[in-house]
Amino acid sequence: MVKIGDGDLLGYYALLIPENSTARIPLDVKGWKFDLDIKFDNTSEEPGVDITPTNDGATITFRKWDNSLGTALLEPEPLATLHDGQKLAFMASNYAIGGTNKLDLQLLLQEV
Q1: Domain membership flag for residue 109
Q2: How far is CA 112 from the centre of its chain?
């Protein structure tokens, strides 16, 4: 198992996401099955990350992550807490190439 800081790497995804598209990652984390949707909103004035629960999982929206030089989270961002108290978190970096986002996403399982 690959370890990054205090987290175990559950998955790594390198995605090319065209403008106005949503990527869906079906996940199974310790028996918890859900869909993780990834969207970009470059109309926002301030960069940020929003996590919204949905009926079948969650949506991560990256706001104003349209820099061709790159944008990244500097530390793991919490996504969910599992029934045993472990934390599911993610790290992300993105490069905007024209209207396409080149996203690298890591999912981490962190001990309490």
Answers
A1: no
A2: 20
Number of domains in the chain: 1
Listed in sequence order, the residues at least 6 apart from 12 whose beta carbon sits closer than 8 Å to its beta carbon are: 104, 105, 106, 107
Contact in structure between 86 and 112 (CB atoms under 8 Å): yes
**Among candidates 26, 49, 23, 33, which has minimal Cα distance to 101?**
23
Give the Cα separation of 45 and 21 in Å (integer). 20
pTM as predicted: 0.93
Residue pLDDT, tens place only, 43-102: 988 999 999 999 999 999 999 999 999 999 999 999 999 888 899 999 999 999 998 999
Distance CA 103, CA 100 (A): 9
Range of the domain at 36: 3-104
Q: Residue 20: what pLDDT?
A: 93
Whether 112 is in a domain gets the answer: no
> Could you tell me which residues are beta bridge partners of residue 102?
16, 95
Angle at 108 (CA atoms; ends 106, 112), nearest 5 degrees: 160
User: At residue 57, what is the residue type?
Assistant: G
